[in-house]
Every structure is written in C-alpha cells, then in structure tokens.
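hey can u check if this looks right to u? its 376 residues, i copy pasted from the old doc so theres a chance i mangled smth
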Amino acid sequence: MNKIQITLKPLVHKDVHYIHIDFVDNLLVEAYVSKYPEVKYGKNKNIYFVRSTKDSVKQLFDYFRLKGWFVDYSAISKVPSGNAIDFQYSPNYKLPPLDTIQEEELLRFNKWLRQKRFSKNTVHTYSEVTGLFLRYLKLKQIESITTRSIEQFNFDFIFKTNKSVSYQNQCISGIKQFLAFKEVKINPLDIARPRKDKKLPTVLSKAEIKSLLEATNNIKHKALLSLVYSAGLRIGEALNLTLKDLDLDRGLIGINAGKGRKDRYTLLAPSIIPLLETYKNQYTPRFYLFEGQYGQAYTQVSARQVLKKSLKLAGITKNATLHTLRHSFATHLLESGTDIRYIQELLGHNSPKTTMIYTHVSTTKLSEIKNPFDNL
C-alpha cells in the first residue's frame, strides 16, 4: 500500500491567503482532514482549506504527522511580512515523488537515526529534508551525491526560495547524517552555516497571565494552560505527562526524558492542585493527564487552538505561543529573586547560558537603574 501524502498549496481568494489541503480521494483521510480545527470546505471546487496564519504550515504538518502521513509543503515558500505571511510558489519546482527503492532507503535511514538515539522530532525532520533532497536530485537527474549537488540544492531550493536560517541548518545537518548512513565521503562543503537571530523571548506579565486564565472557561483547557505556566513546561512535556508523574505529597512533577533525554523534577504549585483534581474528576483521564478523544495524548494542534482562543478572549495582542508561558514562568521566577541556577534546573537547561537570556527580559533590575536624564 502506498504511503498517504498530504500536499499543502497556496491559495488566494479576494486578497485573502489560504492553504489548500490536497490529497488523493480516501474516505478515512477526508474524515481526518475535516476534523482539523477551523478547516473549511469549498463545494464549488471540492477542496478543503484553512486561513493562513504565522504558524499554519507547522500546525498542519504536526497534525498530519500524527498519522504518519507524508506532508509535502514544497509548493509554499514562507516570506515574513509583519505578523502575516505571503505565500508564493517555489520557482520552477514541482519535485517528483520518490520511487520504491528510494522510499525503502529513506525508511532504513529513519530506522538508523532512531537507533542512533536521535529525538523523535529530529528523526522526522532529518527524514523529511533528506526526502526533499533526494527528490531534488531526481528532478535534476543527478545520479550521485557530491559536494557540488548539495551546494546546488542549498542555492536553488533554500537560498533562492527564502527559506529560514533554521530550515537551512536542518537540511544540511540531515543530509550530512544521510551521508554518514550511506558511508559516502565528499569534499568539504562550501556552505555558510548562518547563526539564528538571537531574539529575546516574548513574555506575558503576571496580570496578563491572570487575565488569560480567567478568560479560559473550559476546565480542561484552564488546567492545561495553568500547568504549562506554573511548572515552566515545554508543551511536549505537558502533553506526555501521565497521572503517576504528579507527586501531590511532595509538590513536584516528574518530567521523564525531556529535551536532551534528561529526567528532572519541576514545581507543582499547591494552588493548582484543586483545579487539577476538579478536572480529573470531571474528565476521568485514564493514563495521560491530558487525553484526546480516544485516550491518546492531547495533540499540540489542539493545545495551540486552546491558547489562541484564550488570548483572543483575554484581549492579549502580543505574539504569544505556548512556549511563551514557559518563558513567562522563568522570567517571573527571576524577578521574584529566585537564583538562576535553580531556574536552570527547573527548566531542564543543560547550560546556564541558555537560562541567562531571561536576565535580558526581566524588568526588576532595569527598574533599579538610575536614568542619567533624571540628573540633568
């Protein structure tokens, strides 16, 4: 049976940008597509589509990867424009599909990455970008991987289509792992590996956090957002929590194999326990603390929709994400005088340099600085 493929295509109607979700006719696939939050169905053209936002492609990718389906978003090139995104067709590229031999090789590469103990997300990313690279080689009728072919792919498919710095680094890293898997040696690459822009994290004030939670009426949604903030959790960590990970007596939450495969404990606020107990009594989760409709872990797509709705109800216009709640937790701890070494442990950072970024967004020390203008 051929692997199911979802193709994302840019769509513009009356100057509004959308994403067309294209797939081969299949009742099970159509049923899953139709359940995507805020998806619309166009009867005239018989298509499913969603309004494009800053995170549309990432959210759609995560949603369909839950099923293990291949997601082709090569027709879309993201070019930031304020808070919106302009969608353009990648110039001259309609990548051909992989043949059976290439698909089988990509599956072996995926297995090899997993055996190397790469994280699940890294395995998915490296497999996807390597698949695109192999399809590019097929398009250009390039028989073997060389330094020149990788540099050509980088220029044509990444640089000319305005892909992000992060995307470029992921592609090059994925291809290098594929070369190691194939035991292929090439000459050194003449490709600059640009560093990501060091942007300060968005932080919500305590008043904004309170407003956000008060605007969230659904008990399950409130429990989720409250826990992510009060424990400084990555969203993946929160959604993978099981009932036994909560230590009510000690006021701790056990995080098993978080980022970097590192176990740790973080805080379980005493004031959140009644909320969690009410939630558990009402929803009766069986294994995961936050479960979906069929008992599986609640999805990140659904969690993002929860936050989006609550931000709107609370009237918060900052460009906030679920990770913003984690940033806010760390910043508020620092502002209350908590030693940064303890914050590092709670967040699960390997290096204190990562945690130090919160000193740049904390307002406590800034407010104590005497402005020289006041002495004029």
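Residues 78-92 have pLDDT under 50 and may be disordered.
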